[in-house]
Amino acid sequence: MLQSKAKIRLAKPERDAMRRAGQFNAQLMDYIREFVKPGVTTGELDERVHEYTVSRGHRPAPLHYPGEKGPYPRSCCTSINEVICHGIPNDYVLQEGDIVNVDVTSVVDGWHGDSSETFLIGEVSDEARAVTQCAFDCLWLAIRAITPNCPVATIGHAIRAEAEGRGFSVVREFVGHGLGRDFHQEPTIPHYPTRQSRRDRLAPGTCFTIEPMINVGVRQGVTDKQDGWTVRTRDGKLSAQFEHTIMMTEEGPEVLTPTKNGPQEGHQF
Ligand code: MF3
Ligand code: CO
Ligand code: CO
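# MF3 complex -> structure
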């Protein structure tokens, strides 16, 4: 769904609009985090995301977002345990030991902010903690590796080395993406190096996400035949993810979706 017509290198007023969208999305994440606890359903989290967003005059981008088997039915994604991404909120009750990624995307005055965090529900297994830590560290390593006009592949090199060094795998079927007036636009941001990403560069003014999905076992996923959205690991083992929206500036990367209360760079889960 990459739309090549979208403008990629933004000027000052557009950059400020992206800063506002990112800031709102981070506030939404800080709002929802206190509800991500044992006993809550993912459907309740979704209702809160929807209400918080629309009551402030903004729009949840996932709602009715087009997919191959029909539009996405909810306002955020909640991906539990072996779900890699695009889990649909429902009546599942979060329980001690689960890990759940909550991915929220807001449209503020026509501009997008997109971020996600994996939450540990109560005490979790060592393996669940380790894969969550790896996804978080991979995101921050990639942010710290990129510089103005560097190849997009700088991101993939940093993430692949770290994840595989810890014995985990990096998902390839789903990637980070440019965003702005469109939810998903150029450039494509793979979390492993590719021929195209060695050519593409992160020019100042480019806004994009980094959102590594890290698996305990094999990297491959399988999309649910019924709902057409939920992607699970092929081997049923755990998967974790973190996402920030980033703007490359003349000075270096600026994180547009930093939270007040979420895990900060260097956090140990
Ligand atoms: N927020 C996801 C991303 O990071 C995309 C979700 S698309 C949806 O790109 F339709 F599933 F919501
Ligand atoms: Co994204
Ligand atoms: Co997202």
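# post-check
Residues 114, 177, 209, 211, 243 surround cobalt (II) ion (ligand 2) (CB under 6 Å).
The helical segments are 12-33, 42-54, 126-145, 153-165, 195-199.
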